[in-house]
Amino acid sequence: YDIAGVKLYQDLPPEGLDLANAPDATFTAHGMQTRVDAGPDVSRWRAEMTNFGKARTKGMCRAKGVSASAGYWPNNLNWGGDGVYNTASYIFPGVRGRFYQPVPNPGSCPDNQTILSWVGLGGKNNPLYQAGSSWFGIGTGSFGYHAWWEVIVGKSDTYMVFIPSINVSGGDIIDAQVLVQGSSTSMRVEDVTKGVVSYTSASGGLGSEVDAEWIDERAMIGGQYTSLTKYGTTSWFAMQVMRSNSSSWSGAYSEPNEWWYRMAGRNGTILSLPSGSHSNNTMHDTWKACGITEY
User: Fold this and answer.
1) Whole-angstrom distance, CA of residue 137 vs CA of residue 145
2) How confident is the model over 2-30, as a mean pLDDT?
3) Alpha-carbon separation of residue 135 from 60, 167, 168, 223, 258 (angstroms)
4) How distant is the alpha carbon of residue 68 from its chain centre?
5) Burial class (CB in 10 A: 0-12, 13-18, 19+), 38
């Protein structure tokens, strides 16, 4: 997606391409950082290019078999928040939640900083459907707030669509929902504060492994993760899922397979830290550090 000439999400290189030995023209064509052939970062760059595309998969950020009851909080490079994973008896055709749009403090972090908050539904053998809102700060300017939805199908079919009819402001209550019905998936974003709602739909159903998640994210721009803008705390509430064996919504924290995510840089610095209340299905995802622009 391009705004004012800045590519926010780029087409990924085709699967199987040897990026570690690709020419600069390949990286330029896909909006990625060019080769690193000298200095202390050479070995890290080559390792990253060898594994490129394996970190962000249609399985979202799940480590199978992990649950909050086990006290396991895996770190993730660009996602932080909460999620639940289906049981042997049912999957999740629906996820929804509300949050207060995070308000950035752009002067406190380096340039190219972002915060995206969204609900998501997907899994190992599924597309990833997302709906939410964001704030982008690129260079010395700002592209401001946006409501959006996104569908990720495979590694090279990724697109993000901003919703111009919703004029998000900092602190607005945002309601986001993804719901699969048969072979069609609807994504809904509402600015509850302003009373404006938008729907869209995409073709595609779900397989046997499904994650439902409530996430705060720092975006990838030009092949690099941005800084996480200083936003304080994202307050999530009314976090719910719909089970395939029920036609009604239920609280996220009634699910047995739940896990938390801490967002952290490659050097281990914690960028965001979630906490929640199992009694009322809320989560507070708190900013801890900007992090650095890194690939």
Assistant:
1) 9
2) 59
3) 21, 12, 9, 18, 28
4) 20
5) exposed
Q: What is the pTM of this model?
A: 0.77
Question: 62-71: long-range contacts at Cβ-Cβ below 8 A with a sequence spacing of 24 or more?
Answer: 62/123, 62/211, 62/259, 63/259, 66/259, 67/256, 67/257, 67/258, 67/259, 68/258, 68/259, 68/260, 69/258
Say how far apart CA 130 and CA 143 lie, in whole Å.
Answer: 20
Q: What is the mean pLDDT of residues 256-271?
A: 87
Nearest one of 270, 238, 259, 266 to 65, comparing CA atoms: 259
- The predicted model gives 129-144 an average pLDDT of 82
Between CA 10 and CA 2 the distance in angstroms is 9
What is the phi/psi pair of residue 46, to 5°?
Answer: -65, -40
Q: For 216, list phi and psi in degrees, rounded to 5.
A: -110, 140
CA diameter of the chain:
58
Tokens 């997302």, residue? Answer: 130
